[in-house]
Fold:
Amino acid sequence: MWCLSSEWYYDSPSTVAGTLQRGLGRGAALVRDPEDVMACVRRDHRFWWIFDDRALYLARLVRDLGIDAGRIVDVLRGEDDDNAVGNATQVLVQLGRGGDQVAIDGLREYVRRGADRVDELEEIAAAWPAELWDDLLPVAADRLRPGDMMGFATGEPGSAAGWRVDRVSNQSTGYCPDPECWPAVAAALDAAGTPHPGGFTDAVLFRRCTSCGQRNIVHDGDFACAVCDAPLPVDG
Structure:
């Protein structure tokens, strides 16, 4: 969760609001009041937001209950809280992906008029066809500070040439990919026409401890488990 007040707590899981806050399927089956859904749009209730993708869940509820996407656009316009803005952006991205023109127009206008909308533009670019967003790249780039330019490059609209990748890492403690997987990454970037550095700029070496089963990142050639200090396999 992006920002969690010590005074806030989840509603009971026996209530509709509580099931929606937790992203449960029975909440989607029981909800009838659009305001219950809008409350979940205005506040990101995820506990582990890195792993829990709630935007599609909420977007489907918005669609099924006939909630006007303009109400979610209004959340962007009326909120300064990153929690509300980020959550509403992700829901609008999913609605736009499904062809909701109000969501598309509202989110595009928000990016166009905002002082610094890099995160929102990245959300759009990851989910929408290039023709729906690439004309916004020069607009956003003109408003960025020099230190914010990593990952952006102006280019001709209509293709992925408006983007570049400056830094790439294989650090993923879920999949633990070996640095030798770079050719697959390069092939995907090449297929998209996206310039890249030609290799992992931040390569990470993973090893699983054969004694305790803990995943480890090897630092400075030290093949010792950080949990039990047992030797780690040198060869993957």
About this structure: The chain is about 40% helix and 5% strand. Confidence is low (pLDDT under 50) at residues 1-5, 146-161.
